[in-house]
Design brief:
A hairpin with a 2-residue loop joins β2 and β3. The N and C termini lie far apart (87 Å). Helices cover 22% and strands 37% of the residues. It is globular. It has 2 domains: 47 residues; 142 residues, Immunoglobulin-like, CATH 2.60.40. It is α+β, with helices and mostly antiparallel strands. The longest helix is centred in the N-terminal third of the chain and has 45 residues. It contains 1 helix and 9 strands, in the order αβββββββββ. A 5-stranded antiparallel beta sheet has the order 2-3-4-7-6, with no helix packed on it. This is DUF4352 domain-containing protein. It comes from Labrys neptuniae.
Length: 202
């Protein structure tokens, strides 16, 4: 009986050590993945020239989206006909956006950053076909949109809008939940779009 109890104690201790080892290895793996992700982000910050430059009219792969910035112009009226708030004016970028996923999506926040206009807020997205705010995009159906930033009425406007397009990467399993999704937002392209002083594009 004593031998049986001793064997059982040894088995339990072995299982405990194995469980602890598994937890430690899992934790190390999680920390390693986080360190790699952080390292990649820091590398991008320290090496901004690695982000490619694109011209207006070129399609950019941005993870779940295909983004094609086409034309830009200042505006005093929003695409839906409402005037811009007093003391401000708008800059409108006409673009084509295609949802590359298999489901309807409205995850467009953060995909465009206007980098050379001070005090700009936005963008808000409008459908060109009906001038309404974008609710969601169907899968694999390119849509013409207008991205609208508002800025102080007296803000100086450049001759060319400098934009950064951000993308995300699909992972079949994330490190935390083991579920699929889009992760690691990062800049995928810089785009220069001439600003047409004649009026809004589209």
């Amino acid at each position: 009986m004593a031998d049986a109890n001793g064997t059982l104690s040894k088995l339990r201790a072995g299982f405990s050590r194995q469980s602890l080892k598994t937890k430690v290895l899992t934790g190390i793996g999680g920390f390693a993945a986080a360190a790699i992700s952080l390292g990649a982000s820091l590398y991008q910050l320290r090496n901004p020239d690695q982000v490619p430059n694109r011209a207006a009219g070129q399609t950019i792969e941005a993870g779940r989206w295909l983004v094609t910035p086409n034309a830009a112009a200042p505006a005093s009226v929003l695409p839906d006909g409402r005037p811009v708030k007093a003391g401000r004016r708008a800059v409108v970028l006409e673009l084509t956006l295609a949802n590359r996923t298999e489901g309807t999506s409205n995850a467009v926040t953060g995909i465009l950053k206007l980098t050379n206009v001070a005090g700009a807020e936005g963008p808000d997205f409008y459908l060109v076909r009906d001038r309404e705010r974008l609710m969601a995009l169907q899968p694999r159906l390119p849509e013409r949109l207008q991205a609208v930033w508002t800025l102080p009425a007296d803000a100086a406007l450049p001759k060319t809008l400098e934009l950064t397009v951000a993308g995300v990467t699909f992972k079949p399993k994330d490190n935390l939940y083991g579920a699929p999704g889009w992760f690691n937002p990062h800049d995928v392209a810089r785009v220069s779009v001439p600003l047409d002083a004649a009026g809004a594009p589209g």
